[in-house]
Amino acid sequence: MDFQPLHYIYQPAANHNAHTLLLLHGTGGDERDMLPLAPAMAPHFHVLSLRGNVQEQGMPRFFRRLSMGVFDEQDVHFRTHEMVHFLKELSAKEGFDLQQLVAAGYSNGANIAGAVLMLYPELLAGAVLFRPMQPLHGIEDPFETTRQQPVFMSSGKTDHTVKPAATEAYATLLTANGFQVSNYDINAGHHLTQQDIDLAAGWVKENFR
């Protein structure tokens, strides 16, 4: 496979055995975008932030899309495998525990985190999905996890890019495959709000003491 490395920033915590917060930006962002959220969400975690390898009119993304809200699912598969391959190599280089990764992604970043849940259901220790859409629809076999990891989802009530019924179906699908889903509807659009961060911080504190 012609996998490419990803640009990244890694900030180790004082506790070597801490979880690692894996930050995944939205369309047009980069590895610096979500770093300011880390101290509020998970102050004692290692922090690893990635930049997507796909370009859309000069804007970084984690996988291609065919149009607004329509994903190139073949590329979702490839880019998910590419990112996980990179994470496995990077964990050995930087010394973090791959089984202690908690992803936190916004929009496109949330969607590739969701693809990891579907293609590598045992990999992540948990996931925070801000404004997520179901990234893959062609998986016929179950993708159950035996770890029963917690998953945080927050959606905007006035978000015109994601239909509430689709979010509900996505949450139901993850729950049916063993994930412990906490789903929140925020009084907002597609943009991230302070309420999202506060809810996610409480969820992290509750699930990763």
TrEMBL record:
Key words, A-Z: Hydrolase
MF GO annotations: hydrolase activity
Source domain of life: Bacteria
SUPFAM superfamilies in alphabetical order: alpha/beta-Hydrolases
Gene3D superfamilies, sorted: alpha/beta hydrolase
A Pfam family annotated for this UniProt entry: Abhydrolase_2
Domain Phospholipase/carboxylesterase/thioesterase: 14-196
InterPro entries found in the cross-reference section: AB_hydrolase_fold, LYPA1-2/EST-like, PLipase/COase/thioEstase
Entry keyword annotation includes Hydrolase: yes
The family this protein is said to belong to: Belongs to the AB hydrolase superfamily. AB hydrolase 2 family.
Alphabetical list of PANTHER family matching this protein: LYSOPHOSPHOLIPASE-LIKE PROTEIN 1 (PTHR10655:SF17), LYSOPHOSPHOLIPASE-RELATED (PTHR10655)
Protein name: Carboxylesterase
Provenance organism: Chitinophaga flava
